[in-house]
Amino acid sequence: MEFLPGWRVDANAAVLQARYDDFTEAVSGTPVSRAGNVPTDVPERLANVWLTWRFLPGWTAGTGVRYVGRRFADRANTLEMPAYTTTDVLLLWRPRKDTTLSLRGFNVFDRHYVTTAYYNPTQWLQGTGRRFEFTVNYRF
């Protein structure tokens, strides 16, 4: 949505109530019901917002924030992974109608966060740290 000439906001959010309806897991040979638990790696709150500014013809700058709510790493919902927020930036230049050059920065504040875990408290996969990417897109 463009709210001022050259300024645009894009936002989305999700609020979930994901639950196992009927799920039984074998734990040491004993059936254990997981009905009503949240499925693994499913955040119940997500949000993204981007603000971009067309500051000159062919030039756009922007920043975005991504929020991922807490998730569970096990079907018993005893191992919780914390929520996290990251910030991205971009600079685009379209020198010609068929060519776009972009410089993007991901997780620019180098936030440490967990993307998933292997059903135990000692094997957590860390999210991507700060990184930058330059791309050239040519359409023909």
Describe this structure in words.
With 140 residues, the chain is mainly β. The protein has one domain. The protein is built from no helices and 13 strands. It has strands at residues 2-4, 7-15, 24-27, 30-33, 45-56, 59-68, 71-72, 80-81, 84-96, 99-106, 114-117, 124-126, 131-138. It is elongated and about 65 Å long.
Which secondary structure elements does this structure contain, and how are they paired or packed?
Elements: E1 2-4, E2 7-15, E3 24-27, E4 30-33, E5 45-56, E6 59-68, E7 71-72, E8 80-81, E9 84-96, E10 99-106, E11 114-117, E12 124-126, E13 131-138
Antiparallel strand pairs: 1-2, 2-5, 3-4, 5-6, 6-9, 7-8, 9-10, 10-13, 11-12
Strand order of the largest sheet: 1-2-5-6-9-10-13
Helix content: under 10%
Number of strands: 13
Mean pLDDT: 93
Measured by DSSP, the beta-strand proportion falls in over 45%
Q: Which geometry do the CA atoms define?
A: elongated
Q: Treating each run of at least 4 consecutive H or I residues as one helix, how many helices?
A: 0
Q: Order of helices and strands, N to C?
A: EEEEEEEEEEEEE
Would you identify the regions where 5 or more consecutive residues have pLDDT less than 50? none
Structural class by helix and strand composition: mainly beta
Report how far apart the termini are.
28 Å
Q: List the domain count as a whole number.
A: 1
- Major sheet, described briefly? 7 strands, antiparallel
Radius of gyration: 20 Å
Summarize the structure.
The protein has 140 residues and is mostly beta strands.
Properties at a glance:
single chain; 140 residues; mainly beta; seven-stranded antiparallel β-sheet; two-stranded antiparallel sheet; elongated
